[in-house]
Amino acid sequence: MAIIDHRSLASDILEGVGGQSNVDSVVHCATRLRFKLRDSAKANTDAVKALPGVLVVMKAGGQYQVVIGDDVPTVHAEITKLTGNASTEERTGAVVEGSAWSPKRLLNGFIDVVSSIFQPIVWPLAGAGLLKALLSLVVQFGWLDASSQTYVILAATADSIFYFLPIFLGYTAANRFGANKFTSMAIAGALVYPSIVELSASGESVRFFAVPVTMFNYTSSVIPIIVAVLIQARLEKILMRFLPKMLRNFATPMMSIIVMVPLILLTVGPVTSFLANALSTGIGNVFVFAPWLAGGVLGGLWQVFVLFGLHWGLIPTMLNDIAISGSSILLGPLLSAVLAQAAATLAVFFRTRNSLRRSVAGPAAASGFLAGVTEPAIYGVNLPLKKPFFFGIVGGTVGGAIASSGGSAATAFVFPSILALPAFTTVGNFALQVTGVVIAVSVSFALTFAFVDREKAAEVDSSDATVTVGTVEITSPVDGTIVPLADVPDRVFSSGVLGQGFGVVPSEGVVRAPISGTVITAMKTGHAYGIRSSDGVEVLVHIGIDTVRMNGEGFTPSVARGDVVTAGDIIAEFDVTAVQKAGFDPMTLVVVTNSKQLASIESISSGAVSHGTPAIAITV
C-alpha cells in the first residue's frame, strides 16, 4: 500500500495555502482540515489538490477545506508542529481523539486486534482444518498408510497454512497497522526460513555477529509477527520521512527487513523462550505434588499458551518423557483443553442466528473435535466473541483437573482430539480421562449456549479487521428518511470522494451504531464517529453537516475511541432543534470510507426507515 509521509504532506499543504503567515487558524473534523486564511487568493488550490493524500479541496462557510480522510488527525498534528504553536489546537478548538485506559479496554483491544488480523484467513484455516480432520479419520481407519508418499502430499496440503501461519499473518497485520504488506511477508518468511527453523531445533549456540541469539521456533506462531509488523509500520513512517524521495521505494523495505528480522530474533525469541522454559519447569514441578492442579492449569490455559507461543517450551518435555518412560502426563489434560474450545464453538453454531458465523463455526468445531486443530475455532469464533473463549477455559480447567487427578498420560505424541483417545488407554485412569473430557465439553457447551448472545441475522464479529468474504449490512443509525448520497447537500460527501453511503434526515436525536465493530474515531465535539468491523468495513457516522463548528454544543457522546460496539448500541445523542437553530443541517451521514477496497456496495432501502433497518449491503 502507498505510504503517506504525513510530515511532508503537512508541509506541502501549508505551503500550498500560502504559508504559515497566511493561516489565521486551522482545525480538523473527521475527514478534513479547515483553514481560515487571511487571504484566500494566496492559496494555490491546484497545487494542493495534486498532493498525494489530498482527496479534494473546497471553499465553504468562510473556510478553506482540505479533505484528507482518516489520516486527518495525524496531518493536523504535523501542521501544528510546523507552525511551532503548541497551543493552536486549544486556541482553535481542534479535536483530539483519545480514550481512557483501563485493563478491560486493554484486554478487549488486544483480543480485537488479534481477532481482526486472523479474520481474513478464517475460511482457509477452517478448510485446511477440516481437511486435517478428514485425513486423521482416513489414517485412523486404516484407509491410508501414514508413511506413504500420498499421505505426505496430503498432509503438506493440509498443514501448510498452519506451518507458514506467520507469513499469512504478516500480510493481514500489515493491512491492520498500515505497513507494506510484502515487506511484512518477507519478515515473516525469514522467521520460518528452513535454516532458521533448523537452528532453533539444533540446540547449537547461535550468534548474530558477536551477539548471542536465543533461537525460537516461529512456525505456527502468532504474537511475534504481529509485534514485528506493529514496529515495522512505525519504522516505515520514520524512514519515509527522512529518506530522500529517490531512495524511498527500495531503501524503505530493505532497511525495514534488515532491522526487523534481527530485532525479533534478538528480543521476542529470547523473551518467549525464557517464559516457555519457566512455564515448562513450573508446571512439571506442580505435577509432582498436585497433579490435579497442574492439570487444571494446563487444561484451562493451554490455548492461551499456544496464542503466545509458550507451548513450545512444553513440547520438548513431552517428547522426552515419551522417549524415556513411554508416556507423558503433560498430554493428559490437553484433551479437555482442546475439546472444550471445540465444544464452545459448536454451541455458537447451534446458538447464533448469524449465517456467516455459523458457516465458520461448523467446520471449525469439526476440525477441533476430530483433528485437534483449534485455530479456526479460536480465531474465527471464540476469541472474537470473547465469552466462548473464556467458557472454553473454564471447561478445560475442570476437565483437565479431573483427567490429571487419575494420572492420565499419552503413550504417543498426538494432537489432542477424539481420535487420539486410544493413546490414553494404558497409562493412568482412562475412566477419569473420559470423564474429564465429557465434563469439559459439557461445561463449555452449556455455558456458551446459555450466556452467549444469539446475534442478529445481519450481525458480524465485533472486532476490527481487514477484509474477508461475505455480505455485511449497514443499518440506519437513526429514525428518519433515507437520502441518496448524491443528494446530500455537501459536495465532499455527495461526490463520493470519501466513499459510498447514504444520508438520513433524522426524526430523533439518538444515534446508534450502524455496524458492530471497534470505535476507531470519536471526535471530541461528539459529531462524528468511525467504526471498523471485523470484516474490515470502515464506516464514518457524521451527525449533521458542518456541525464541527458547533464545538460540541448540543452533542452528547456515549462512546470513546477503542470501545467495542454492537450494531444498535447508542453511540451519541444530539439536539436536532439546537442544530437547526444554529443554522446547520442535522442530516446524519453514513459513509463507507474504505469503499474502494470492497467488492460491492448496494443500496437496499429508501424512504422512511427506523434505526436498525438495513440500508446498504456490502460484499467484502
Structure report:
- The protein is α+β, with helices and mostly antiparallel strands.
- The chain has 22 helices and 20 strands.
- The strands form 5 sheets. Strands 15-11-12-13-17-9-8-19 form an 8-stranded antiparallel β-sheet.
- Strand 1 and strand 2 form a beta hairpin.
- Helix 5 crosses helix 8 and helix 11 (223-242) runs antiparallel to helix 12.
- The protein is globular.
- It starts with 5 loop residues before the first helix and ends with a strand.
- Write down the overall mean pLDDT: 84
Tell me the span between the first and last alpha carbons: 18 Å
Question: How many beta-strand elements?
Answer: 20
Main structural class = alpha+beta
Number of domains: 3
User: Gyration radius, to the nearest Å?
Assistant: 27 Å
Using the alpha-carbon principal axes, give the shape: globular
Question: Could you give a short account of the major beta sheet?
Answer: 8 strands, antiparallel
Name its key features:
alpha+beta, 20 strands, 3 domains, 620 residues, Glucose Permease (Domain IIA), globular, Gyrase A, domain 2, 22 helices, four-stranded antiparallel β-sheet
Give the arrangement of secondary structure elements:
Layout lengths: L5 H11 L6 E6 L3 E6 L7 H5 L6 E5 L2 E5 L4 H12 L4 H5 L10 H16 L3 H19 L8 H15 L1 H13 L3 H11 L2 H9 L3 E3 L2 E3 L9 H20 L2 H22 L1 H22 L1 H18 L6 H11 L8 H18 L3 H17 L3 H11 L1 H19 L24 H22 L19 E5 L4 E5 L6 H4 L5 E7 L3 E3 L4 E6 L5 E5 L5 E8 L9 E3 L6 E2 L4 E5 L1 H6 L3 E8 L7 E4 L3 E3 L4 E6 L1
Antiparallel strand pairs: 1-2, 2-4, 3-4, 5-6, 7-20, 8-9, 8-19, 9-17, 10-16, 11-12, 11-15, 12-13, 13-17, 14-16, 18-20
